[in-house]
Amino acid sequence: MTRFALTLEFDGTPFFGLQRQKDGPSVQQSVEEAAFRVLGEEVRLHSAGRTDTGVHALAMRSHIDIAKDIAPFRLMEALNAHLRPEPIAVTRCEVVPDDWHARFSCVGRSYVYRIANRRAPLTLDKNRLWQVPQELDHAAMHEAAQALVGCHDFTTFRSVHCQADSPVKTLDRLDVEREGEEVRVHAAARSFLHHQVRSMVGCLALVGMGRWPIERMAEALAARDRQELGLNAPPHGLYFVAASYPADG
Amino acid sequence: MTRFALTLEFDGTPFFGLQRQKDGPSVQQSVEEAAFRVLGEEVRLHSAGRTDTGVHALAMRSHIDIAKDIAPFRLMEALNAHLRPEPIAVTRCEVVPDDWHARFSCVGRSYVYRIANRRAPLTLDKNRLWQVPQELDHAAMHEAAQALVGCHDFTTFRSVHCQADSPVKTLDRLDVEREGEEVRVHAAARSFLHHQVRSMVGCLALVGMGRWPIERMAEALAARDRQELGLNAPPHGLYFVAASYPADG
């Protein structure tokens, strides 16, 4: 068996998330079925992160084990051909050691959350950004975000369905920047709780609208209580951007 | 009657172009119908440019004349509410003098053409960029483009269906730049012939692929012969970016 690392880009709109679901289409199912058509083998796709319905990926790292002898470039081209017309693309494919695991070897994950801060409905960016009509104070959002950086109990920002053993995570980065009418939130950590990024962004948006004072973010974190969550941002503004591994240098 | 200038953003994918068509949906028809629902008046939308099926607009300038007394902000909000769920948005609305005409007063039009220069199929950017898998030499494309800048007979780059009186136009700008895997072509002129931008971009792509030497662009222009056209780029990479007017300062 040879292990291939795949970098996946996908539009999450038509999927019930990355991981296989009983009740609807998933990125995992599409890739595994494309691989079966290419190779005649049942493969299992493992990925660095799990994503919810509607969440996108620019560079999700995944792997599959294959018995058949095939060159990485040919595998990538064949998978892309068999994935059409679904909005999933393999943008990179390489052979990795057998002990490299897309999920368990991953030591860093980063996301970007994109907000369209405008009154007009979205057209070209529909399902790509969260539209927030109230003017957002991105500097206040950035300041509030810094209270979350570091090692904390993120219970407030955790879905009730989260399966992680512990609510304690170390958030390495939470930066808010504006470019024209777009406000972007960049988040990086070794790993995240379920809904953590969307929950943090939702509360940051309340700060940006002036509905929460900046200090309330630290108070919400300290409360360690899901009831303190102000708002969960919708999934379609969220992008999985990158996964990092020890060998990445 | 009061004349309102509207700035329109739209995703051209589901439309048979901006202008009203007998045989399919158009941006003009959608806006006029939304205005009728808002105002109870039949209005006629006039726009700075005509766009083909699949071509997008970031800021198309248009105008309508309205008998009813309504504030610009309220008109914009009501039009946007009634345009849903169609991918058309009014991003700006203002009262203009009766002799201001979105099409006839316009003295400058600019477009951007977006190319995704990559092998992998597009996912999030499907119908937003033209995917070109062969590596493009954007510096060669930019150099070739300069042969087209200035006042020329653009017959080679003109659709056989073009209704303009003359094939002579002054091209003010044709710049090619790369940002990562995206190659963008910026075009500006007082006005363009039908298919002119797409035809110029198609030939520039041939230069970028190395299938045309740089000099061939000037030769194709000088031939003044549609048969010399190498390639017409597809509509979905094209965006109408801006229209300018004498009073714009």
Automatic annotation (TrEMBL), chains A, B:
Gene Ontology BP term (one): tRNA pseudouridine synthesis
Keywords, comma-separated and alphabetical: Isomerase, tRNA processing
Ranges annotated as spanning the membrane: none
KW tRNA processing (keyword) present: yes
GO molecular function, one term: RNA binding
EC number: 5.4.99.12
Catalytic activity: uridine(38/39/40) in tRNA = pseudouridine(38/39/40) in tRNA
Record has tRNA processing as a keyword: yes
Residues the record lists as binding substrate: Y111
Active site: D52 (nucleophile)
Pseudouridine synthase I TruA alpha/beta domain residues: 9-104, 144-246
InterPro entries: PsdUridine_synth_cat_dom_sf (IPR020103), PsdUridine_synth_TruA (IPR001406), PsdUridine_synth_TruA_a/b_dom (IPR020097), PsdUridine_synth_TruA_C (IPR020095), TruA/RsuA/RluB/E/F_N (IPR020094)
Gene3D superfamilies per record: Pseudouridine synthase I, catalytic domain, C-terminal subdomain (3.30.70.660), Pseudouridine synthase I, catalytic domain, N-terminal subdomain (3.30.70.580)
Enzyme class: isomerase
Assembly notes: Homodimer.
Similarity-based family: Belongs to the tRNA pseudouridine synthase TruA family.
Alphabetized NCBIfam families for the sequence: hisT_truA
Function statement: Formation of pseudouridine at positions 38, 39 and 40 in the anticodon stem and loop of transfer RNAs.
Entry protein name: tRNA pseudouridine synthase A
Organism per entry: Qipengyuania flava
Organismal lineage: Bacteria, Pseudomonadati, Pseudomonadota, Alphaproteobacteria, Sphingomonadales
